Amino acid sequence: MKQYDYLIVGSGLFGSVFAYEAAQKGKKCLVLEKRSHTGGNVYCENTQGITVHKYGAHIFHTSNKRVWEYVNRFCEFNNFINSPIANYKGEIYNLPFNMNTFSKMFGVVTPEQARAVIESQRAEIKGEPKNLEEQAISLVGRDIYEKLIKGYTEKQWGKDCRDLPPFIIKRIPVRYTYNNNYFNDRYQGIPEGGYNRIIDKLLENAEVRLNTDFLSDKEGFLSLASKCVFTGTVDSYFGYSLGKLGYRSLRFESEILNIPDFQGVAVVNYNEREVPYTRIIEHKHFEFGTQPVTVITREYPESLKEGAQPYYPINDEENEKLYEKYSLLAKNEKNVIFGGRLGSYKYYDMDKCIEAALSLCEREL
Length: 365
Ligand code: FAD
Ligand code: UDP
Prior knowledge:
Order of helices and strands: EHEEEEHEEHHHEHEHEHEEEEEHEHH
Bound molecules: flavin-adenine dinucleotide, uridine-5'-diphosphate
Strand content: 15-25%
Largest sheet: 7 strands, mixed
C-alpha cells in the first residue's frame, strides 16, 4: 500500500480541481508546489485592500454552464465585464475590434460602411491565411493590423507576425456592433476577494507542500503514491530529452500610487512596438474598488530565462511537432497523467483548464 492515492504536481487550477474531486471520492492526495504559494497563475495578494492579480489580469469567462456553476459553488462572482482600451501612440481605441474601433479608425458610422472598408483592405490576402499577419489583415484589414496588432503581437511573442500561427489572433472577437465586451462568452466575472478563495477551498482536504520541486527527487516522490497527476511542463518531466519546448515568459512590475484612479479602466494595452510593455493593469477596477490609493502592474514580455515562469506555450509548427513526440512519451508513462496549461502544452483559459480537469476526474475517479 502506498501512502497516497495521488501525487499532484502543481497547485494551479488544474491540480486543485483534481485534488478536490479526488478528496470527494475519499482519495488521499499529496500536492507538491514549487512556488511559495498555491494557485499557480491565478494567485492574488491583498495590497491596501486591493486584490492584486500577481501573475497578470485574470478575468473568468465561459460559455460552459457546468463550469460556471462549478466555480460559483466556491465563491461569489461579481459582474465585471472586461472592456480594455488600446493606446497607440496616445490614440485611444476600444477593444475588441468592434464598431467603436472602426468608427474611430475609419471615420465610419454604420456596420455597412465598416464592412466596406475592411472588405477593400482584406482584398490583398488571397486564399487561406497562412500566418498571423495574413489572418489579422483578413479579419480587420491592414490599418487595424498596423496600429493595434503588429506591434503588440511582436512584443508579446518576440517574433514576426509572419512567423506566428493564425489561431492566436482568432482569440479576439471581431463584431459589427457597438459592443466593447472583450469576450463572447455567456458568463463572466471576477471572484469577489480573489481567486485564492476558490483555490483554498479546492485544496481544503489535500496535504500541500509548498517550496517543493517535484524534479528535485522525481523517483522518491513518485514512489509515495499509486498515481501522479503532473501539471508542470511536459518537457521538464522527461528531462528535456527530446529538446526544449518553446514558452514565452513575462516580467511584472507593480507600483502603488497615491491617487484614487490611474487609468479609469482595468486594462490598457500599449500597442506600439516602442513601448516595452504590452499592458498596464489597474487592479482595483476588477472589483470596482474605491480605495484612496491604486495598484498598477506593467506587463513586459520576455524570452524564457533560467528560473522564470513559462507562461505561454508557443504553439507554432516546430513546437507542436516536438510536443507530439513528448505526448507519445507521456502516453506511455505508467501511472502518470499530464494535464493543465503546461502539462498539455495548450493555451488554455481558466474555464478550459477546469473543463479538462473535470473530464479527467470523470474518467479517472
Ligand atoms: P498553472 O497555473 O501554471 O499551475 C501549474 C503549477 O505547477 C504552478 O503553480 C507551478 O509552480 C507548479 N509546478 C510546475 N512544475 C512544478 C514542479 N516541478 N514541482 C512542483 N510544482 C510545479 N485565463 C482566463 O480564463 N482569463 C484570463 O484573463 C487569463 N489571463 C491570463 C493572463 C496571463 C498573464 C496568463 C499567463 C494566463 C492567463 N490565463 C487566463 C490562463 C490561466 O492562467 C490558466 O488557464 C490557468 O491558470 C492554468 O492553470 P494550470 O493549473 O494548468 O497551470
Ligand atoms: N493582440 C493584439 N492586440 C491587442 C490585444 C491582443 O494584437 O491589443 C493579439 C496578441 O497577439 C495576443 C493575442 O491577440 O497574444 C491574444 O490576445 P489575448 O488578449 O487573448 O491575450 P492573453 O490575454 O492571452 O495574453
